User: Fold this.
Amino acid sequence: MRWGAIGPGATGITTLKMTAGDYLLVCFMLNAEDVPHMAFGMIKPITVIESSAPVAALPEAKVSIDMVDFGFDFSGAISAGPQNISVTKKGKEEHEAFLIRLAPNATATDFVGAVALDAPPAASR
Assistant:
């Protein structure tokens, strides 16, 4: 389960189909010194328990995303506003998905360059 960054005062909503087990809720965002927020306490263990209550029906997804080995396949365009998106892992590899909003006029190439292992520290960018 992943959420993109949620700005001050904003709200993000997700629908999850959870299985019983132990999880961690973690914030990987970096502060101005490039230290992840989890180092300051934004990490919380969560235990999902079995339940005999009827499972609520999931909302209908308007768009589906398949995570295939080293790629993403979309069933259609994503519109602005509240969305129900179904994400399915297909193939043999383990994957995760983050949704990252680019800064105005930024490109995917800009993002990849900024997070590259040899990228300069954020303060010098």
Remarks:
- The radius of gyration is 17 Å.
- The longest helix spans residues 108-115.
